[in-house]
Design brief:
heterodimer; A: alpha+beta; Pnp Oxidase, Chain A; 7-stranded antiparallel beta sheet; 3-stranded antiparallel beta sheet; 10 helices; 13 strands; about 30% helix; B: alpha+beta; 6-stranded antiparallel barrel; 11 strands; elongated; binds flavin mononucleotide
Chain lengths: ~290, ~290
C-alpha cells in the first residue's frame, strides 16, 4: 500500500489544539464523530422536574447490555441525578429532523425547568424505569446506573439497559434507511460567519460488508481456528493432508507458546502466519505450493 | 403509530418480529453504530505484538481520553489489564474493511494479525508499540484505569499521549475526512450458512445544528442565562425584556425551581426563543 507522510503531535501539542472556545479543526480530525443521544434524568432530591441533555456514549457489554455515559463535572444537576448507583435514566436517539431539539438540550436550563419542554419534545411513559422516555425519538433505552467513576473533568456513569422501546414506524426499516435518519454523530463545533458556535453532526451513509467464508469461519464470529481449517477442507479449498499439517503445526505451536527462545517456535510462527496470510488473501495456488514445500 | 417495548431479556434474546426475515434486524435497531478501531498491543507474556479490532467511545477532551471495552478472553484484554500499559488505537479508513475484519479471525494467539493483513507498522513517538501506517489517524495511548464489567469484559480508559494523522487528510475538508474515516461497526448480516457477516459503515452527510439566536452564542454546554444575555445584546430582546426574563430565571433559581407558575412562564419564554417565535416572546414579556 502507498504510504502517505504523517504529521505527528506530542501530548502538549494535542492539548494546545484543544484550548480555547472552539477546538482546532486538527483536534477534531484526531477524533471520531460519536452518536449523540438525549439523556433524560429526574432531579433529586425529590424534585419533580426532569432534566435532558445531549450526550454521547461508549458501549461496554452486550450481555448484559451496558454502556458508559460521560457527564461534565460542572453539570451539577446531572451529576447529582446520576451519582448514586441505582439511579435511573433514559437514552433517546434523536433523528436528523431533531437537530434543533438536540441543540436546545445541549444547553442547561434553569433549575426546575426541563429542556425537553423548551425543545417541545413529547415525553411518554417508560416501562422499566421511573424516568420517562421521549415519544418523538425512534429509540429509547431505559437504563440503571451500576457504578460511577470520577475521571478528570467528567463523571463516568456505567449504566445497564433494563428495557427499551422503538417507534413501530421503524420496526421494519432496513439498516440503510435507519442510519440515514438516526442517530446523528457529533462531528465538530465551528464558528459561523457571525462568530457564533455551530455544532455539526453527520449521518452514516455507506455500509460495506466484511469478508465471509472462506476468508473467515462460516459462523463469521467464532474463536475456533481448527474448525475453520476443517471447513476449508470440507469445502475443497485445502486437502485433507494439508488440513492435517496445519492443525499439527497449530498444536505444536500451542505446546511451545511459552518457550519464547525456541527456534522451532519461531519457525512455526512464520509458517502459521504465512498460511493465514495466504488464506485471508485468497491465494490458494500459493497456499498449496507453500504447504507442499513445507 | 405506537411504541413497542422490550425487556432486557428480550433484548438479549435478539428480538425478532413476525414478518421480519432478518433475525438481527430489530436487535441492531437498539445498538447505535460505534466507531471502529484497530488496536495494537504487546503480549505481556511473550512480548509479541497483537492486533485487534474494536470499537471505542469518548470520555474527556481535556485531556483527550477514550474508552475501550474488551471481552475478557481476547489477547488484547490481557495486554491492557494494568494501569500504565501502552497501546496504539488506529482509526481505519473505508479502504481497510478487509484489514479491519482480519484481526477478528480466530488466529492462534501470538500470530500477529497485522502481518496476516499485510499492514505496515508505524513507529510511535512515545509508546513502545507501533501504530498502523495505513490508518489515517494513530493515537498513542497509556492505560489510566481498568474496570471489570460483570466478570465478562473490561472497560479500559486510555489517555492519548501522542498522535499522528496522514498529511493527505489535512488537504480535505471535514466532510471529506469523515467520509473516509473512521469506519463504524453497524450490524451483522447473515451468510448462506446462517453465520454472520460483519458490516461497517462510513459517515456521509454533514449537517449543521441551529445556533444563535436559537441558542447561546457559545453553543453547547452553556447555561441558558448566557443565551438570554446574548439575545439582549443582539437586540432580539429589549433591555427591559431581557431584564424581565433574567429576573424570572433568577427568582426561579432562588426557589430551587419549586415555583410551578414561574417555571411554566420561564419554560414558555425560552421555548418561544428556541423556536424563534419572537412576536410571541415579546407578548409574553410585555404582557405580564
Ligand atoms: C469492527 C470490529 C469491532 C469490534 N469491537 C470489539 C470490541 O469493542 N470489543 C471486543 O472485545 N471485541 C471486539 N471485536 C472482536 C475482536 O476483534 C475479536 O474478538 C478479536 O478476536 C480480539 O482479538 P484478540 O484476541 O487478539 O485481542 C470487534 C471486531 C471487529 C471486526
Amino acid at each position: 500500500m502507498a504510504m502517505t507522510s504523517k504529521r505527528f503531535f506530542s501530548a502538549d501539542e494535542i492539548e494546545s489544539l484543544q484550548q480555547g472556545e472552539v477546538m482546532d479543526p486538527m483536534a477534531h480530525a484526531l477524533r471520531a464523530p460519536m452518536a449523540q443521544l438525549l439523556l433524560v434524568t429526574r432531579d433529586v432530591p425529590p424534585g419533580d422536574s426532569l432534566c435532558v441533555r445531549s450526550t454521547s456514549l461508549c458501549p461496554l457489554t452486550w450481555k448484559p447490555y451496558s454502556q458508559s455515559i460521560n457527564i461534565p463535572l460542572d453539570d451539577e444537576r446531572v451529576v447529582r441525578n446520576l451519582s448514586a448507583p441505582g439511579a435511573e435514566c433514559v437514552l433517546a436517539e434523536p433523528t436528523r429532523d431533531q437537530l434543533r431539539e438536540l441543540a436546545i438540550c445541549g444547553q442547561r436550563a434553569p433549575e426546575g425547568v426541563c429542556e425537553a419542554d423548551i425543545a417541545r419534545l413529547q415525553l411518554c411513559k417508560s416501562l422499566y424505569v421511573d424516568v420517562p422516555s421521549i415519544a418523538d425519538c425512534p429509540i429509547n433505552l431505559e437504563c440503571v446506573v451500576d457504578h460511577v467513576e470520577r475521571y478528570h473533568t467528567h463523571l463516568i456513569a456505567f449504566t445497564r439497559v433494563v428495557g427499551a422501546s422503538i417507534d413501530d414506524r421503524y420496526l421494519f426499516s432496513e439498516r440503510e434507511e435507519i442510519i440515514s435518519v438516526f442517530p446523528p454523530n457529533l462531528v465538530d463545533d465551528v464558528l459561523d460567519a457571525n462568530g457564533h458556535l455551530r455544532r455539526r453532526v453527520s449521518l452514516l451513509r455507506d455500509i460495506i460488508p466484511c469478508p465471509t467464508f472462506p476468508y473467515a469461519q462460516k459462523a463469521g464470529w467464532g474463536n475456533d481456528f481448527n474448525a475453520w481449517m476443517c471447513e476449508l477442507r470440507d469445502e475443497g479449498y485445502i486437502s485433507g493432508a494439508e488440513c492435517e499439517l496445519v492443525l499439527a503445526w497449530r498444536k505444536r505451536w500451542d505446546d511451545l507458546f511459552m518457550d519464547a527462545a525456541s527456534p522451532e517456535r519461531a519457525a512455526l510462527k512464520a509458517r502459521l502466519t504465512e498460511v493465514s496470510r495466504l488464506i485471508v488473501q485468497g491465494r490458494w495456488g500459493k497456499l498449496h505450493d507453500y504447504l507442499r514445500e513445507a | 403509530m405506537g411504541r413497542l417495548y422490550y425487556g432486557s431479556d428480550e433484548l438479549l434474546g435478539q428480538p425478532a418480529f413476525p414478518g421480519v426475515q432478518d433475525p438481527t434486524l430489530v436487535y441492531y435497531h437498539f445498538r447505535p453504530a460505534r466507531p471502529a478501531n484497530l488496536l495494537v498491543t504487546r503480549d505481556p507474556d511473550s512480548g509479541e505484538l497483537n492486533l485487534a479490532a474494536g470499537t471505542f467511545g469518548p470520555l474527556t477532551d481535556h485531556p483527550y481520553t477514550i474508552c475501550l471495552h474488551l471481552h475478557s478472553s481476547p489477547h488484547s484484554a490481557l495486554s491492557l489489564s494494568a494501569v500504565g500499559a501502552e497501546c496504539v488505537v488506529a482509526l481505519p479508513g473505508r479502504d481497510l474493511i478487509r484489514e479491519t475484519w482480519i484481526p477478528a479471525l480466530p488466529l492462534p494467539r501470538g500470530i500477529f494479525e497485522a502481518e496476516v493483513a499485510e499492514l505496515s507498522l508505524l513507529d510511535s513517538q512515545v509508546v513502545s508499540v507501533p501504530g498502523i501506517a495505513e490508518c489515517p489517524v494513530n493515537l498513542e495511548c497509556v492505560v489510566e484505569f481498568v474496570r471489570d464489567l460483570y466478570g465478562r469484559a473490561t472497560a479500559v480508559f486510555l489517555k492519548v499521549v501522542a498522535a499522528s494523522i496522514d498529511e493527505e487528510m489535512l488537504t480535505r475538508d471535514r466532510a471529506g475526512q469523515i467520509g473516509h474515516y473512521p469506519t463504524y461497526e453497524v450490524d451483522d448480516a447473515t451468510n448462506i450458512w446462517g453465520g454472520s457477516i460483519e458490516r461497517l459503515g462510513v459517515n456521509g452527510e454533514l449537517l449543521e445544528c441551529p445556533g444563535f439566536p436559537a441558542g447561546a452564542k457559545r453553543g453547547f454546554n452553556s447555561d441558558m442565562t448566557a443565551w438570554v444575555a446574548d439575545l439582549r445584546q443582539e437586540g432580539y430582546l429589549s433591555e427591559a425584556e431581557g431584564a424581565a426574563l433574567s429576573g424570572w430565571i433568577e427568582e426561579l433559581s432562588s426557589a430551587a425551581g419549586r415555583n410551578p407558575a414561574l417555571r411554566e412562564r420561564v419554560t414558555r419564554a425560552l421555548a418561544s426563543a428556541a423556536w424563534e417565535e419572537w412576536d410571541d416572546l415579546h407578548a409574553q414579556l410585555s404582557g405580564e
